[in-house]
Design brief:
3 domains; four-stranded antiparallel sheet; 0% helix; 24 strands; 285 residues; four-stranded mixed sheet; mainly beta; Immunoglobulin-like; single chain
């Protein structure tokens, strides 16, 4: 009887050889890492869009000044914060990163500041003590005001880097302004020579029906607002710009519900200028 293939003993190429040893899988070491969260702020509040980096790891602060750095190798590192505005210094902070631990930090950015100082005098070079000097040095903040001493000197300290328009006003003299550019550190001069102001522009602002109006008024000279005033029905709509010198001036008026007022003229003597504003007509369909 013939044998079938199933009846034949199976043979392999490695028959009679010892079986190959199976190696265990390689063990992959887990890299020790940590993470860092934090908040960046300055004197004005949270700082957005600042670059935060540690070595090659980089991120940006959000609208609330918050940031997170993940997968940070353990050890001692340096966090570098670079603000988008050149008004602030870069900040570098040493930090210890621990494995599987989240570190929380707060970083405060210092401003690049300088000092604005100078003197206020009249046309003859005589110091004007008690002159009011003002400058708007921070966005969305009120102007900072100081007064000159008996020698006409004044000073603003800790002024942020930037370009500013500083004004000086003394009783009986015309308000003047100068531009000053504050860079990194140091003192930046802004001196004033004030002219005697013996002229004025005054008058009333009324509606078409003769009723005194509440409005804001701006006096401009050489394209710059030099004075502001406000009228109301309680003072019969009266206004006055005083201590002016001979020159060309422009008055712009804004009143709710009324067309704006406008006047341009060369001032050679005291002037009385009255305004009559028309009501804004509503457009009906």
């Amino acid at each position: 009887m013939e044998s079938t293939p199933e009846d034949k003993p199976s043979t392999t190429q490695n028959a009679g050889q010892p079986e190959k040893e199976v190696k265990p899988e390689e063990v992959v070491e887990k890299i020790a890492e940590g993470s860092i969260t934090g908040e960046i702020a300055c004197i004005e509040g949270p700082v957005a869009n600042a670059t935060v980096s540690l070595g090659m790891i980089k991120t940006f602060s959000d609208a609330k000044g918050k940031f997170i750095l993940e997968h940070v190798p353990v050890g001692i590192g340096k966090i570098r914060v670079k603000p988008r505005s050149d008004r602030f210094y870069e900040s570098i902070l040493d930090i210890i990163i621990e494995s599987d631990n989240r570190k929380d930090v707060s970083i405060f950015l210092n401003e690049v500041t300088g000092t604005v100082e100078g003197t206020v005098s009249d046309e003859n070079g005589k110091p004007l003590g008690g002159a009011e000097v003002s400058g708007l040095f921070r966005p969305a903040r009120d102007a900072i005001v100081t007064k000159s001493d008996e020698k006409g000197r004044y000073m603003f300290a800790n002024v942020p880097r930037g370009t500013y328009y500083v004004r000086a006003k003394a009783q009986g003299h015309m308000l003047e302004g100068v531009t000053v550019n504050v860079t990194a550190g140091g003192s930046f001069p802004a001196n004033f020579t004030l002219k005697l102001g013996a002229l004025s522009i005054s008058g009333r602002v009324l509606g078409k029906e003769g009723t005194p109006l509440d409005c804001e008024m701006y006096l401009m000279r050489k394209g710059v607002v030099v004075m502001k005033d406000r009228t109301s029905s309680s003072v019969d709509g009266q206004y006055a710009f005083t201590d002016l010198i001979p020159d060309t001036y422009e008055i712009i008026i804004s009143s709710p519900g009324h067309m704006g007022g406008h006047w341009v003229g060369e001032l050679k003597k005291a002037e009385m200028v009255n305004f009559e504003l028309e009501i804004i007509q509503e457009i009906t369909k």
